[in-house]
Every structure is written in C-alpha cells, then in structure tokens.
Amino acid sequence: MRQRCKSPISANMDMRDNESHSRFTDTELEIARGTDLPTLLESLGYNITRKGRFHSTTEMDSLRIKNRRTWFRYSENVGGDAITFLEHFQGMTFTDAVRHLLAFNGYAQDTPVLRPRPTPPALPAETRTVRTPACSYRSKTGVCVSAETRHLPSGGRGIH
Q: Strands, E, within the chain: which ranges?
C-alpha cells in the first residue's frame, strides 16, 4: 500500500502548529485543555442545558459536553477540548485560544521580562582648546605653548 506524501500546505500547517505549541509550557497547555466547558460556554453567551450525564446548549442541540472537559458536535462530526472549541466556533487561532483560556482560568502566560536597551555611553563634551592630537598631548603632559616656542626650531608653528 502506498503512503501519501503530505502536501506543502499541510506540512506548513504542521510546522506552524509545532511553533504555536512551543510558545506555551506543558502546564499552560494542561490548564487550557482542562477548562470547564459549561462555564466557558456560559461566559461566551451560550445557554447551557443538562441532558442526562451530558451538557448541551440550546443554540446547538447536537453539541454534547462530556465530563465537563470534552465536547462533540454530532451534526458536524467534530469534537475536542476547550482549545479546539474556541478554534472551531469562535474562529480563534491556537495561540489566541490558549491565551484566552489561560486568562479565563486566572493564569497569566509566562512571558520573558523585557529589559530596556542599554544606552550607549555619552561622549565627552567637545572642548574648543584641544584641536589636534598634538594639542591634546600637550594639554595632558602640561607642556605650555610658550616653552614650545622657545625650545623648538620651528618656534612652535607647524605643531598645530
């Protein structure tokens, strides 16, 4: 039996899903997946009803919530957890759904602390007395200009 190759589109989708999953810790994903669905749906404006061991909504009578954590909609033959519910019925991306569920459960996503960029060291203020490297050397060594004019053959001209 031949195996079908993945199309480039589905391969990109898988890669995007892996990148999305890696943004969250296992604990964060567990919290999001363990969300109480009847409470979540009520907060989204759905009317929750109890049908035997299951919960349902008056808006979607073919939707069943089992064990308060998983759902299945028989008319569409789809189901899953709280994350897939938000993706399917609210049109959220995986990342947005997990963030929404973490906030709904009172948890903030672990985010790295942004540190301000260090400012470059300030340059010294420009001085008008020092114009050339020779002048800078003279001012650091304490050689006065009058001594240069007396002891240099050029009389101090040409050093500036």
A: 48-51, 54-57, 63-66, 70-73, 78-80
Per DSSP, the three-state class of 106 is: coil
DSSP three-state, residue 92: coil
Q: Which tens digit of pLDDT belongs to each residue from 12-35?
A: 344 444 455 568 889 999 999 999
Q: How many residues does the chain have?
A: 160
Helix or strand holding residue 37 (H, E): helix 37-43
pLDDT tens digits, residue range 99-112? 999 999 988 765 44
Closest CA to 57 of 42, 70, 67, 75: 42
CA distance 157 to 62: 100
Q: What is the value of pTM for the model shown?
A: 0.56
The pLDDT confidence band at residue 154, using thresholds 50, 70 and 90, is low
Q: Is residue 125 packed enough to be buried (19+ CB in 10 Å), middle (13-18) or exposed (0-12)? A: exposed
